[in-house]
Design goal:
Number of strands: 7
Strand order of the largest sheet: 1-2-3-4-5-6-7
Structural class: mainly beta
Helix content: under 10%
Shape: elongated
Order of helices and strands: EHEEEEEE
Number of helices: 1
Radius of gyration: 17 Å
Length: about 140
């Protein structure tokens, strides 16, 4: 299924020149994922970035999230039973800096439904996961 997503990341709260120390300073994020055939969700949280080299970086994100997916007793066969409308979004990424302003990032993200319970007689809730690529621009 095709998803369209977008995310805004803040600068680090405290800029540090030491790349190891800087990895522990989060950037705030806000974003959304729009599935063209189903569930949409929005999230806000924190992202930690570690520069492997000058041109390669890895990221980890954790955020609170909400969605408009199916949660009731009747779930269509082609949709996930999500159990409740709130959860968390976890993500990991590998990025490549193409220039001083542009980067290409491969991502794996998951909307977690841990703590949500399904309706009696329905499948256990499970959240969607997405694999993709993003083109980033630094302002």
């Amino acid at each position: 299924m095709l998803n369209i997503g977008g995310e805004l990341l803040s600068p680090r709260i405290v800029p540090l020149s030491d790349r190891i120390a800087a990895a522990f300073i989060p950037r705030f994020n806000i974003g959304s994922s729009l599935n063209l055939n189903g569930t949409h969700y929005a999230y806000a949280g924190a992202t930690w970035t570690f520069d492997v080299t000058q041109d390669v970086f890895v990221e980890a994100s954790l955020a609170a999230a909400i969605h408009d997916g199916k949660t009731g007793a009747i779930i269509p066969e082609n949709r996930l039973s999500l159990g409740c409308n709130a959860g968390t979004r976890e993500a990991a990424a590998l990025g490549f800096r193409l220039s001083a302003r542009w980067n290409l990032v491969t991502t794996l993200e998951h909307f977690s439904t841990v703590g949500c319970s399904g309706q009696p007689g329905t499948a256990s809730p499970r959240g969607p996961a997405n694999i993709g690529a993003r083109l980033g621009y630094t302002f």
